[in-house]
Design a protein that fits this description.
Length: 200
């Protein structure tokens, strides 16, 4: 089983040691097969002082190339193989089915939507795009365009941590509270929705 904490420390160390190349490699691994949140990579890059332009450029290139790997897996690997071995990179069957349904419903527009608003994990959506055989060139272009805003925002956030620590901490706590409230509300709603009729 993958130790995520150790993996995250290794990735941060990779960025610190290799700078721009480290950002590229970390984002490539994150978006292809390694179960690592991109937030860790991008915020860390901004926080340790890597220039914003470098984070955006190398992060976008790494994400896009990693997405191409995921697309190839979805297009050329058999579904039973993906379902059997996906658990080793924290991909569950329902992730693939959900992403596949989304891709079939919205076509190539789903790539841009899925990158700007990550409804499903990055690598899962790339695999689903390959399974549904979305056009490769539009897939690559929409991926590159779609990842730019998110990379920019997270890199700016990481950079701001060093300059405005107190403000960032307050905002982070506030965001966590909102997230918890949302999750609790969602769980209560789901529980109420599946409650048997006639129940007290």
């Amino acid at each position: 089983m993958i130790n995520e904490a150790v993996l995250q420390n290794d990735i941060v160390g990779l960025i610190t040691r290799f700078g721009d190349l480290g950002v590229f490699l970390a984002m490539f691994f994150e978006s292809s097969i390694v179960p690592l949140p991109s937030e860790i990579v991008l915020i860390s890059a901004g926080a340790i002082g890597i220039p914003l332009a470098s984070v955006v450029i190398f992060g976008a290139l790494g994400s896009t190339l990693g997405a191409m790997v995921g697309y190839s897996l979805g297009r050329y690997a058999a579904m039973p193989v993906l379902l059997k071995f996906g658990k080793f990179i924290l991909i569950k069957p329902h992730h693939i089915y959900k992403a596949e349904e989304f891709a079939r419903k919205y076509g190539i527009a789903s790539v841009l939507i899925g990158r700007v608003l990550p409804i499903v994990p990055f690598k899962v959506f790339s695999i689903a795009a390959g399974i549904t055989r979305l056009s490769f060139v539009p897939f690559v272009l929409c991926t590159l365009i779609g990842v730019l805003p998110r990379i920019l925002i997270l890199a700016v956030f990481g950079s701001a941590i060093i300059k405005h620590t107190k403000v960032i901490v307050i905002l982070a706590v506030f965001a966590v509270l909102i997230f918890i409230a949302f999750k609790v509300t969602h769980l209560l709603y789901e529980k109420r929705k599946v409650k048997p009729k006639g129940g007290s």
